[in-house]
Amino acid sequence: MSATFLDSNIDPVDHPFILGCVDPTNKAKLLTFPNAGRVSIMQHYRGEQRDAQLKLWEEHCLHMSLAEAQELARKNGFPFYFDWEGCRSEEGYYRIEGSV
What we know:
The chain is an alpha+beta fold.
């Protein structure tokens, strides 16, 4: 197995690093949910509101499961599409964004 794949998404610690489709019309557009949240904030807010939402997101997004992150985004007015099932490898592995 390559270092760019996970065989399971069961551990919430892994969730922020799993890539998912963020555009239902373009299955090749992949981001992690922290990055998808950032993009959504940039699309929904400007100025000080944007900065406040980005600060909130950055403080929490790496310490949450996908479900918790989507709930935070929904409650704060920047919901985003994210599907990590549709872009799994042919063998069923989840793609991840490598990090340290």
